[in-house]
Design brief:
Order of helices and strands: HEEEHHEHHEHHEHEHHEHEH
Bound molecules: ligand C2E, magnesium ion
Distance between the termini: 94 Å
Radius of gyration: 22 Å
Structural class: alpha/beta
Strand content: 15-25%
Number of helices: 12
Length: 287
């Protein structure tokens, strides 16, 4: 009886494992083919100045238009792309495409998510340098978003890469802040310019309670260290109001804008550009 059950359990796991291998192998082949067939594209989600509500920059977010499965989100393929090393060509494509797009957008910044394999892979600093040179984008307009996972392994080496990136003039932000184990240590040891507070803290924001206390503490930390702080995942007017009261620098979330196409970003920033041109024209006229 017990032996039988054991055999059944074994059979179940063996077939589940087999299926997983099959699924992963197929997905890997599909990612590879998808890169070649140009099935990947970027959406861009604006990041707003909390007080002026002007767009300060956009975050590039990868999407996959699969021939049969339709639109696939990064949650479904990034980790496999990471494990198989496919994230290296895919990530380089994201960097190139985002920097090229940003050259159409005047002076707003563009943020690109960097995965651990990409960061540790063969000369990431040289890749970023080449992409900047090819696109002509000013380095200060490119921001790289890193999670703690990127920095975990060899901290000396991570530090050298981060300083190499800073020497190029790009900005570094710590993504999903508050979800890791040693975010504070990383802020102390590495040259970050910005923090993005993880959306789970924003989701729980109430006028009183733990989430607000944590958000306020992170904002205080940002001020003390001279870092800009972005709140991710702002979905309600109440969250917006609390973040404004607490002087959070920048906001990103569905309340203001979903991730949208590059053409839509151009349309969204056009009024800002016109306003700025008016101010400049007035200043010239007055001088
Ligand atoms: P992330 O970098 O923390 O990006 C923020 C995620 O939150 C995005 O999900 C975005 O669409 C979503 N989001 C934005 N506003 C809201 C909101 O108000 N509410 C909620 N619930 N969600 C919101 P997305 O695009 O599915 O990306 C998920 C993750 O996949 C990203 O998290 C990032 O870690 C990764 N990712 C996306 N694109 C790339 C890429 O090009 N390279 C790498 N390495 N990772 C990427
Ligand atoms: Mg991000
Ligand atoms: Mg994040
Ligand atoms: Mg995230």
């Amino acid at each position: 009886e017990a032996k039988n059950a054991g055999r059944e359990t074994y059979r179940f796991f063996a077939s589940a494992m087999n299926d997983e291998v099959v699924v992963r192998t197929r997905l890997e082949a599909e990612i590879r083919a998808g890169i070649a067939a140009e099935e990947f594209f970027l959406l861009y989600q604006p990041r707003y100045d909390t007080h002026t509500m002007r767009i300060k920059g956009v975050e590039a977010l990868l999407r996959w238009r699969h021939p049969t499965r339709g639109l696939v989100s990064p949650a479904e393929f990034i980790s496999l792309a990471e494990e198989t090393g496919l994230i290296i060509p895919l990530g380089a494509w994201v960097l190139r495409t985002a920097c090229q797009a940003a050259t159409n957008w005047d002076d707003i910044g563009v943020s690109v998510n960097v995965s651990p394999a990409q960061f540790r892979g063969a000369d990431f600093v040289a890749t970023v340098r080449d992409v900047l040179a090819a696109s002509g984008l000013s380095p200060h307009r490119l921001e790289l978003e890193l999670t703690e996972g990127v920095l975990l392994e060899d901290t000396d080496r991570a530090g050298r890469i981060l300083h190499g990136l800073k020497e190029l003039g790009v900005l570094l932000s710590m993504d999903d802040f508050g979800t890791g184990y040693s975010s504070l240590g990383y802020l102390k040891n590495f040259p970050f310019d910005a923090i993005k507070i993880d959306q789970r803290f924003i989701a729980d924001l109430q006028p009183t309670g733990d989430a607000r206390a944590i958000v306020q503490a992170v904002l205080g930390l940002g001020r003390a260290l001279g870092l800009s702080v972005t709140a991710e995942g702002v979905e309600t007017p109440e969250q917006l109001m609390l973040l404004r009261m607490d002087n959070c620098s920048e906001l990103q979330g569905y309340l203001m804008s979903m991730p949208v196409s590059g053409a839509e970003i151009s349309a969204l920033i056009e009024p800002q550009r016109v306003r700025r041109d008016d101010v400049e024209a007035a200043a010239i006229a007055a001088s």
